Structures are given as structure tokens and as C-alpha cells.
What does this fold into?
Amino acid sequence: GAVVSQHPSWVICKSGTSVKIECRSLDFQATTMFWYRQFPKQSLMLMATSNEGSKATYEQGVEKDKFLINHASLTLSTLTVTSAHPEDSSFYICSAEAWLAGGETQYFGPGTRLLVL
Amino acid sequence: DQQVKQNSPSLSVQEGRISILNCDYTNSMFDYFLWYKKYPAEGPTFLISISSIKDKNEDGRFTVFLNKSAKHLSLHIVPSQPGDSAVYFCAASAGNTGKLIFGQGTTLQVKP
It folds into this structure.
């Protein structure tokens, strides 16, 4: 199956610092990756679509200058939360598109728990 | 505007019985539907998907049914096992965007 990893799995930082989260597809190449965030007991909300070699596409209401996305290779996308504040504390999950068994499916990473103090 | 809805926040079934999780959608442009299983503090795990050209897809204990006219899909798990206890999300996408819209999730508890 398709495996997606995320690093770090959790991070605690002070308000005002920047945090980088990596998303890697381990056994397949992904031209498109997605970033989601999930608040407690709520659904996953799509933040942005990350395309290898081009700018990310952000969903309405998501600040692109605050959530910087870089898709530098076919196996790596990074999300940088700049000048993090307590309201940015959340569970961030990435996914990567893969064509397996004749269908296009998104496979998710394990998520990154961010706590901003 | 909730385009994908899972109206039952929780479901409890006995081990060995059938679990039926429901999902409704409003966007007629959705043409691909997926079910994911999620444990707390982990990423969702893909379970099964269905294209809008089909009305049923089966994989082991999991079967997804799609009723396009009703804009409704359901996930059947037979027989249910305690290890199936988790939050189940349905998701939908339209065209080739790849963007998934998720429902709110249904917490399934399978009792031994």
C-alpha cells in the first residue's frame, strides 16, 4: 500500500515562532499533496492543495502568508506555520494522491499535533 | 455550507452484527466517494471508495452503496468486530481536482 509519513508527530512552541511540518510519500511519487487541519471533535478541513513545482492553491479563508507550503519534490511537501499563535494549535494532516488498483485515492500521513503556548 | 453530512455522530453495535454508517451529500458534481477510518491523534486510513458510475463496491467485510438519486451513500461492515471501533469519515470529490470534502464523522463502537 501507499505510505505517507509526517515529521514531527508533535511539536510545542512559543507564540511568535515558526514551525515546519514535513510530509513524505515513502513508496510512491505524488505530484499532488493536500494539507488539512482538524480541531477536536470536528471534521478534517482542507487548507491547501500542494502541487510539485508550482504554487500551492489555498482554500478560502486560509492565509497563504501564514501557512507557507513548498512542494519541492515528488515525495516531499512542507507546511510552515509562520509566527504561530495559540489559535494555530491544531492537528495538521497531509495526504498524497496515489493511483492504486485502478483508482485515485488519497493516503494520509499520521498527523502532527501542534501546540502553541 | 456542509456539502457532505454524516447525521449520526455515533453508532453502537454488537460484535458480529452489521454496522451501517450513512452519509448524505448535496453537491451533484461529486463523482467519487471514499470512506476513511480514523483513530484519535492519527491520520485517516483509507477503507473503500466508489465511483459515481457504480452503485456498489465490496472489499472483504466492507461494502459501500451509492444512491445517486438520493445523494446518499452508506458503508456496511459485516461482521462487525471490536477492532472496528473508530471514527468513520465519508469524503467526496468532484472532477479531477482531488480535493476531498469530509463529513463530520461517525463514531462507531462495536461491543464484544
In short: Chain B has a mean pLDDT of 94. The interface with chain A takes residues 32, 34, 36, 41-46, 49, 51, 89, 97-105 of chain B (CB under 8 Å). The first strand of chain B starts at residue 4 and ends at 5. Chain B is about 0% helix and 55% strand.
